[in-house]
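Severity: low
Component: inverse-folding endpoint
Summary: output formatting inconsistent between runs
Steps to reproduce: submit the following structure tokens with default settings.
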């Protein structure tokens, strides 16, 4: 089944979620991808938050306030796509992405193909 959205036309909304939870396996994958041992990768890429042992660190973003540290904020693309966490691989867990549908509607209504609907979640 074809996807009902195109991530390449999105400014990275899902990457801006306040909590991008990781598994130990995700951290191991990131460590291998960057040529680091697990402990260094854990320290460099994760933090404990929201009752979870591994949560992705974030960086500043002009549209969403904060976004995944591995998101290129200029090109609006994932820089670790091959090594991305399981939660990213599974997103949006259904055939359609609600934000993408909303974004497409707003771009049409605004007659602006580059319009970005800014959110306030941090």
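Observed output (run 2 of 3):
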């Amino acid at each position: 089944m074809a996807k009902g959205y195109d991530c390449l036309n999105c400014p990275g909304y899902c990457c801006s979620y306040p909590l991008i939870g990781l598994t130990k396996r995700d951290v191991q994958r990131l460590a291998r991808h960057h040529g680091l041992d697990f402990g260094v990768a854990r320290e460099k890429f994760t933090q404990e938050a929201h009752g979870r042992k591994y949560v992705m660190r974030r960086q500043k973003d002009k549209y969403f306030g904060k976004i995944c540290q591995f998101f290129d904020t200029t090109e609006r693309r994932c820089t670790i796509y091959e090594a991305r966490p399981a939660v990213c691989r599974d997103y949006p867990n259904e055939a359609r992405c609600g934000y993408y549908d909303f974004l497409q509607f707003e771009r049409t209504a605004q007659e602006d193909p580059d319009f970005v609907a800014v959110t306030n979640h941090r």
